[in-house]
Design brief:
CATH topology: Metallo-beta-lactamase, Chain A
CATH superfamily: Ribonuclease Z/Hydroxyacylglutathione hydrolase-like
Helix content: under 10%
Radius of gyration: 12 Å
CATH class: Alpha Beta
Strand content: 25-35%
CATH architecture: 4-Layer Sandwich
Largest sheet: 6 strands, mixed
Oligomer: single chain
Shape: globular
Strand order of the largest sheet: 1-2-3-4-5-6
Distance between the termini: 33 Å
Structural class: mainly beta
Number of strands: 8
């Protein structure tokens, strides 16, 4: 099941767990319920809520060039294939500035 939350947040469920993409400060907290993995596409606050993620306990994936030092995250290079919460994907080249 795919569930869209506020702004950029999307939740993909698979086998009882979930991959949550871009759970930012505008996203509902319940988007992260039972999340086993989180994918952050870039560092803007509307795509990443550090306060929630540091306590989550899920595996967090970020672009290799992301400057998010407070998180213990798996850095993924653009074009690199990775698997998160049973889903396989690739990060495209970064389309946005980070400032």
């Amino acid at each position: 099941m795919d569930l869209r939350y506020t702004h950029a947040c999307i939740r993909l469920e698979h086998d009882g767990g979930a991959l949550v993409i871009d759970p930012g400060t505008w996203s509902e907290p319940e988007a992260l319920t039972r999340a086993v993995a989180v994918l952050i596409t870039h560092e803007h606050a509307d795509h990443v809520d550090l306060d929630r993620l540091v306590r989550l306990g899920a595996t967090i994936y970020v672009p290799a060039e992301a400057d998010i030092e407070v998180l213990d995250a798996v850095k993924v290079t653009s074009g690199e294939e990775f698997t998160a919460a049973g889903f396989t994907g690739r990060l495209p080249p970064r389309p946005r500035a980070t400032s």
